[in-house]
Design goal:
Helix content is about 35%, strand content about 20%. By secondary structure, it is an alpha/beta fold. The protein has four domains: about 25-205, Alpha-Beta Horseshoe (Leucine-rich repeat, LRR (right-handed beta-alpha superhelix)); about 225-270; about 285-370, Phosphorylase Kinase, domain 1; about 390-610, Transferase(Phosphotransferase), domain 1, CATH 1.10.510.10. Strands 1-4-6-8-10-12-14 form a seven-stranded mixed β-sheet. Strands 2-3-5-7-9-11-13 form a seven-stranded mixed β-sheet, with no helix packed on it. Strands 15-19-20-18-17-16 form a six-stranded mixed β-sheet, sandwiched between helices. Strand 17 (about 310-315) and strand 18 (about 320-325) form a beta hairpin. Helix 9 runs antiparallel to helix 11. The relative contact order is 0.06.
């Protein structure tokens, strides 16, 4: 049996190698040059790499999948370039168009200049393109309109000029389009993206004709009878035309000013004093609309509640299901919280981050409208299991950890400026209809300047999830979130809260203390949630626990970055068995000899950590 299994393994490896060779061969030119390697080397050649992040890109390599910042499909095609905030300058080579399988290209927060190559329009499989916060100039290529699979396009904070190309405006598949803070001009076309922003382009205008918008009066036709009149008459006619154009333009300017003033007046009538901010592409709801959507905020529609307020399930007129967060104390903390959430979520757009549909502001109310997450929060699914809500299996828990990590990597390393969440926990990780993890509740997030960590006088968060340096000094950084993520992993493994309940009104036993002890004793199986019924991968358990212990090091400098954590988790997930093997493992898992006669906390009753259950996030 052992020799047969080895034979099957060798045969499988042979098939995999043959497939890779076949794909690699298909990428070779008649002279034996890999097209994708040649394209990447051309891209490298046009860039200036002062930080030497591209040193590993080697023309002699036959497999670019091993290169830094390059991601490949299982078949060996280059599908992603994630070169974010790495100090690259120079230009972007037109050879980018030769990476025909590229799906994701992230080049934001560098110093790239020159024109955006029109050859990007050849990347028919491209789904995500972010070139924001660079120094690109010239027009937006119309060829981007050919990218029918594109769902996310961000070109903000460059020096782009000219008009918004109609083919780009007509892209119906875009979830988000960001062209803000450039030098774009001319009339704004109708943009079909679900959400978009064109703020910060001083020369853009809308709702007027192209001639008036561009300040160009229509020339008199050569066949005009005015050519036959005398010079005196021509002079009079010119004055009349000039006065008429000036009058029309003045009227249009006056109307625009009245519209702007009226909008600003209405906004200020709802917002207290100094709380003005640009809400960009978000939809503004009336309070009456949200009353109707939630059946007058019926208690039957409550999805959850906490220090921030209450969340209700709602139905918009088009039958879209939403979650409406009604904030408490809107005149003080709620106002600041509201402004923070709107700004943070408006900046962060990612599959694993909770999007904001819109908002409502009145003199007494602040409400936020989110997409409804049908599978609730991770905390709900871990602790409120039943016949209708079965427990999350092991593979789902690993997938949830991966999704949450991707969302935090985006906040820390791909947003400009960076964002710290500051309350990472199972209750703030939501699950969509496909059990994809979505990081929610940015109410505690603060912008982080790249030059320094953020210091605050008020510690926000939840006891058991707060990093020790933040709790003691009030100083937070990305490593604060890394600590919270380490605790989240332990919640996923154990199904328990960070502070497991003792008797009465107190908490007994820090989950982290118990995990460290059991890791030293090599008895990690005791950790695993009983609801998994012994169905888990012991090797993966050991590796994931080691990741959580790295994330929860008491010294923040010893904790990895979230991007490093993500790479480790992706490696663990990539080494998992295939679906068929997973099914076989689940059939056999009842035969495991692991004992669950005692709970995690029962193992270490001597723990001296006693603390009242406490949420520090406060009203929002």
């Amino acid at each position: 049996m052992h020799s047969m299994r080895n034979g099957m393994l060798v045969f499988s490896l042979f098939l995999f190698w043959t497939a890779r060779v076949s794909v690699s061969t298909s990428l070779l030119s008649p002279k034996g040059v890999n097209y994708e390697v040649a394209a990447l080397m051309s891209i490298k050649g046009k860039m200036r790499d002062d930080n030497h992040v591209l040193d590993g890109w080697d023309i002699n390599s036959v497999d670019p999948c091993t290169w830094n910042m390059v991601g490949c499909s299982p078949e060996g095609f280059v599908v992603s370039l994630e070169m974010v905030s790495v100090g690259l300058s120079g230009t972007l080579s037109p050879s980018i168009g030769n990476l025909s399988h590229l799906q994701t290209m992230l080049l934001q927060n560098n110093h790239l200049s020159g024109y955006i190559p029109a050859e990007i329009g050849k990347l028919s499989e491209l789904q995500t393109l972010d070139l924001s916060a660079n120094q690109f100039v010239g027009d937006i290529p119309s060829s981007l309109g050919y990218l029918t699979r594109l769902s996310y396009l961000r070109l903000s904070r460059n020096k782009l000029s000219g008009q918004i190309p109609k083919p780009v405006a007509d892209l119906t598949g875009l979830t988000f389009l960001d062209l803000s803070f450039n030098n774009l001009s001319g009339p704004t076309p109708k943009i079909l993206a679900k959400d978009y922003s064109v703020a910060g382009n001083s020369f853009l205008c809308s709702a007027v004709s192209a001639e008036i918008c561009m300040g160009v009066p229509k020339p008199v036709n050569d066949s005009s009878p005015y050519r036959k009149v005398s010079n005196h008459h021509r002079w009079i006619v010119s004055i009349i035309i000039g006065v008429s154009c000036t009058f029309v333009v003045s009227v249009m300017i006056l109307l625009c000013w009245v519209h702007w003033y009226r909008s600003r007046f209405l906004l200020m009538s709802y917002v207290q004093q100094d709380f003005e901010f640009d809400i960009g592409h978000l939809k503004r709801f009336t309070f009456r609309e949200l009353q109707i959507a939630t059946n007058n905020f019926s208690s039957k529609n409550i999805l959850g509640q906490g220090g921030f307020g209450v969340v209700y399930k709602g139905y918009l007129p088009n039958r879209t299901v939403v979650a409406v967060k009604r904030l408490r104390d809107p005149n003080f903390t709620g106002e600041v919280q509201f402004q923070t959430e709107v700004e943070m979520i408006g900046l962060a757009v990612h599959r694993n981050l909770l999007r904001l549909y819109g908002f409502c502001m009145t003199t007494e109310e602040r409400l936020l409208v989110y997409p409804y997450m049908p599978n609730g929060s991770v905390a709900d699914r871990l602790r409120d299991t039943g016949q209708e809500n079965p427990s999350l299996d092991w593979s789902k828990r690993i997938h949830i950890a991966l999704g949450a990590a991707r969302g935090l990597v985006y906040l820390h390393e791909q947003c400009n400026p960076k964002i710290i969440h500051r309350d990472v926990k199972a209750a703030n990780i939501l699950l969509d209809e496909y059990f994809e993890a979505v990081v929610g509740d940015f109410g505690l997030a603060k912008l982080l300047d790249r030059r320094e960590s953020h210091v605050t006088t008020a510690v926000r968060g939840t006891v058991g999830h707060i990093a020790p340096e933040y709790l003691s000094t009030g100083q937070s950084s990305e490593k604060t979130d890394v600590f919270g993520f380490g605790i989240l992993i332990l919640e996923l493994i154990t199904g328990q809260k960070a502070l497991a309940a003792g008797h009465g009104h107190h908490q007994k036993g820090m989950i982290l203390d118990s995990v460290r002890a059991l890791h030293q004793e090599k008895r990690l199986e005791v950790l695993v949630d009983r609801d998994l019924k012994k169905c888990f991968n012991a090797e993966e358990l050991e590796k994931v626990v080691e990741v959580s212990l790295q994330c929860t090091e008491s010294n923040p400098s010893l904790r990895p970055k979230m991007s490093e954590v993500l790479r480790i988790l992706e490696t663990i997930a990539g080494q998992s068995a295939h679906v068929e093997e997973t099914q076989d493992r689940e059939n056999q898992c009842e035969g495991r000899s692991f004992s669950f006669t005692r709970s995690l906390i029962e193992v270490h009753e001597e723990s001296s950590f006693i603390i009242e259950a406490m949420e520090l996030s406060g009203p929002r």
